[in-house]
Amino acid sequence: MTVARGEGRLSRVTTRAWVSVLIGAVVSAVLAYLVVRTVRWSEVLQGFQRVEYRYLALAAVGVAVMHGLRAWRLTVILRPVQWVRLWPAYCYTSIGFLAILVIPFRIGELARPLLLAEHENVPFATGLAAVAVERCLDGLAFAGLVALLAPWMPLPGWAVPLGYLMGVGYLMLLGLLMWAWLCRAACVAVVTRIGQWIFPTRGLTIGEALRRFLNGLAFLPDSRAVGVTVLLSIAIWLTGIWVNYVSFFAIGLSLPVVAAAVLQILITVGVLLPTAPGALGTFQFFTVMGLALFGVGEALALTYAIVVHAMVLIVYTVLGLTCSLKIQVGWWRQLRGLSMSGIGRGESAR
């Protein structure tokens, strides 16, 4: 009977996973159709012939640098718990972003916590907390960029309130994490009691998982560490804008830096949607939308979107696979197991 119930739960999780994949595929297909329905492909092909690959190479270097900044930020967040060297952190980051790229519904976010547990003896829940903090910092940097540029940039009407809403949400989440850290002993005790009441045999395990999660927030009281992570988050966003700007020259676009910033904002919004692996369709739709605000025609905008997206995919894939071979990990198998059985079991990875 127990086996039957376990198989039933696994079946439901698998069904939800496939439904998520289907929703993402439909969203990507619809957005891709909206982009290509009126475009003249002969003009797109002409745009491909004018691509200057030296600028694309510079942009690819920028993407690799963004991974380095993310890895540096991760080491700062984890420093009170575990000293993680920059090169291994870079490998974990590259593998993690490849996992996010190829695995639907952002299950790939779990790759770095798994790798940290396997190679650095950082508990899975602690690594998960570090990733949560990173997302809060990225969200706040995004909201700050919207607030800074909204008064004098041609953003769509929905982008500004969405940016403010995201900023408030991430600020509240970061405040909640800080409060949980300051009151960690009480939080762990309460959650343990509730867990023992609901799940008599697993209450202590749930409490221990929360304690390990809160350990990942140990850097928050350190104003210097927080300042470094904020500066690194800003640097990551500025590098992304620089990548967009350099890529303009690859297809002969003469646009201001603010166009690259608008593009960064809209693509970030697009990533939030359910999408097919690789953000196919979604990336192109929001890129064409952003460039249209600056008078770029559909064909040339689509050329830019296809070329830059291909460059990003190649960089992510090369870095991710190279780092996977370097540290010899089976991240796909582990992530597949987590997506099928639920992330709760990932706490055993240490």
Keywords:
350 residues; mainly alpha; 77% helix; elongated; disordered N terminus; disordered C terminus
What is the alpha-carbon Rg in Å?
A: 21 Å
**Helix proportion range:** over 70%
Structural class: mainly alpha
Largest sheet composition: none
Report mean pLDDT, rounded to a whole number: 81
The total strand number stands at 0
Uncertain residue ranges? 1-13, 338-350
Shape: elongated
Number of helices: 14
**SSE run:** HHHHHHHHHHHHHH
Beta-strand proportion? under 5%
The CA-CA distance between the termini, in Å, is 31 Å
Describe the structure.
The chain is mostly helical and 350 residues long. It has a domain at 2-35 and 48-119 and 220-348. It is built from 14 helices and no strands. The protein has helices at residues 2-36, 41-49, 53-78, 86-102, 111-119, 124-149, 159-182, 184-198, 203-215, 223-250, 257-271, 282-292, 298-327, 331-341. Helix 3 (53-78) packs across helix 6 (124-149) and helix 3 packs across helix 13. 40% of the residues are buried. Mean pLDDT is 81; it is low at 1-13 and 338-350.
Write the topology of this structure.
Blueprint lengths: L1 H35 L4 H9 L3 H26 L7 H17 L8 H9 L4 H26 L9 H24 L1 H15 L4 H13 L7 H28 L6 H15 L10 H11 L5 H30 L3 H11 L9
Task: Briefly characterize the structure.
The chain has 350 residues and is mostly helical. Helix content is 77%, strand content 0%. It is elongated, with a radius of gyration of 21 Å.
